[in-house]
Amino acid sequence: MSSSPTVPSQAATEARAAARGAELGVLPSVPGWMLPVLVVAVGLVFWKGLGGALVYDDLALVARNPVITSFENLGAMFASSYWDFLDPREAKDIAYWRPLTSVYLTFGYALGDGRPEPFHALSLLTHLGATLVAFRLVLRLTRRAGTAFWTALLFGLHPLHVESVAWISAINDPLYGLFSLLTLAAFLAWRERGSKGSPWLACVGFALALLSKEIAAATLLLVALLDLARLPLPARDAGGGEPRGHALADRFLPFTRAYAPLLVVLGLYLLARVQVFGELTAGFGRTITEYRIDDPFRLVKLRVELLGGGLALLVWPAKLALFREVVPVLRWTSPAFLGPLLASLALVATAVLLARRRARLALAAVLLVPLALLPALVRPESLGRFPLSDRFLYLSVLGFALLVVLAAARFLHPLVATAALALVAGGYAVKSEGRLDVWRDEVALFEAAREESPLSPYVRWGLGRVYLERFDRATDPADLERALAEFEQANDLLTRAKEGDEEIFFDWNDRLQANLGTGTAYLLAARHDPLRDFETPRTVFEMITRAFPQSHHAWTGLGAANLGLGDYRAAGEALHRALALNERHPEAHFNLGRLYAAQGKYQLAKKHQERALALRPGHLADLIALADLEFDLGDAERGIAYAREAHERYPNEAEPLVILGVMSAARGDFRTALRRLDEALEREPENGRAHLERGKVLNGMGEVDGAIAELRRACDRLPESFEAHYNLAALLLQNGARDAALPFLERAYSLGGERTAMVSLRGTLMQLRGDEIASVVRYARTDLERGSLLEANVWIDRALDLDEGNPIVHYLRGRIQRSSDLFDEAVASQLRALAIHEEYFQAHFELGDLLADLGRRDEALVHLRRAREFGPPASWEEGLIRATAAGLDKLIQKTERELEGAGTASGRGE
Partner of 258 at 20 to 30 A CA spacing, among 145, 389, 509, 629? Predict the structure, then answer.
């Protein structure tokens, strides 16, 4: 055997040597460098994938999967569906039962506590194992080390494997591929040993493959295929006649001992699925995706697309894509159909030609491609929205690689064949290494997907979601604009599809997700914008809940928007509605935790935050929330434990260090607190909470100037923080800086905070600004708008003492009285305001609206029409002027209709 990887010739002497080796069941010798080169070559190319983040389905299957967090859940892995941890309504159509993959993911979780690196390492190691088994399998089939080497190298480096190796959620593909190849290798070894007993080792491999992924059922067909393709057995029959193995029937003997055990394994697997899914169809009748296909021949064409498209990707893997959607309408003359059709016909023609020439090994290589893909071809509906995905071709790659190597040996000089195969392997390596960049993180993945699938609403709203997540972390306004643009694009594509564009695939979930994305964008904008406009996202989510009342995501968004508005009752109702639809939704539990914490109900808040953490183990926001809650509940040790866990999982995040610093300060350990806070600011210099806590620590240490500087930074970075503004104002007042403190006092008052602090703050402002009518009116308006009616009345009483003839004061008093159900007093106050200032637009509008509510429509119309005559103040923003004028016109029209209707009814009564 040559020490170079030159493709061996087909000399008769080698064939006889191979037959003698097969007779003894001994594999030919292999040059010592071959296996290390295989491992190093494949490992180096895919090494970059180890640094990939959790992307796409990983965010659910890994980050939100409580099943894989402990080996104590082994029973659940074998007794339930693969996606059962999701919303039951979402999981019910997914007929995946992959307990061994769940076990494998549990190993990955245990190795890294949920971090992505161990999962990626397991994927790569599994693929390397599959590559080595492929080498051994081809060596056993051909008895040629060179053929085995090149086939395994092309198999290991093929760009179609990038999706399976770099994407954690596709770990089941190299896993089932490994066990399927072990099954084939074990079965052939059993044959070479004389088919004695039963192929139990192959049965074990087959069972493990099935438990990894459903498509492994094709392994049984591949066993039969390679059984047919193996070298002739030289053993003679008892009469000393010609060697057996030339007749087709003889090649499968003894049939029962060879195949019955494998069929038993398949039968037990199906029975187990019947038990898991509770139906005689074993879950295989379920459909993940409805393709909206009316053409009765479209599903036939779809299968041609899958087979021919897969062949095209095997031959020329240039245009790789994760999201290849099914086009609803595909015409017979479309290039998208004719290309796959020609590829499929070429496959059939090649198979016929090889069969006629009795080239069994080459024929097996050709047939391995469609047979490995057969379960997907039988029921493409079970594959989801993207049935032509690279990962489904994992085993098919081996057939294609073997065919390429055999063709090179047959038609090229050995040295030319070696050079050609090296060139192909190099091309694969370059393409695979470059493709790994796409799987670096979600932004890279979805931006690449946008280029590959520009007409996919799914990709557009998916990319919008990714931009939103980045905006929530880094608050770059450009990301918010990008997200909104992608959601708008998704809606535009959906409109085109509904108007008849046949190139665009969509379903109802696309419309829901595009609108959810828009609502979430406005919600996040409100959280990070000083204007705190939660009214816009509330309006958007209200519309979504009307259109999609069964969407727990929509009710969760509505709850979060109401929480931002301080409407705790409405927030609670919406969030509980979300949990009634899906008790497993972590965001609903998280927001309920926030709601109860804001109400001071810390035990209830803790209960929901713990549930959120259980549903998405190791989630940063949940760990931070629980750390804060435990601190509020007085259990500092548990709070520290959560903060430390967060820091260990997310060492580059600032927030866990901030909490650890806060807890050190609470124990009086100011130096440790400062060190922790400084570490937090090294990671995130703009972290407002770190500056706030650092200012408080410096103040506790008596370093007043440093404390003031830090609190100023905190106010700049946390414009919505009552605590930052209140602490800075208090510190400035203590140091005699009254004028400098006033803006921060007023900002703190407008934000609102804990009741005791607000009482103190109100007293301070009354003392400092109680003689200024403009300031007093401003404070009254602030309290009125947040529903603090008693406090607003205190300010109004003070304002009346200062200037009884001020119309604004009477107008505000009227609004307070109306909110307190003192309607006659409210009418009197508005009339008093108009008596002082007859052209007061707001007073006319308010009085007209109030009178209309009281049924005094004639009087109401007088004041509403006067309001329209005067119009909103010119100092208002243009948008507010237009909205107010439009609202006024609607109210006038409504009142006129009601008045007319009342008159008609009165006439009929007479």
Answer: 145
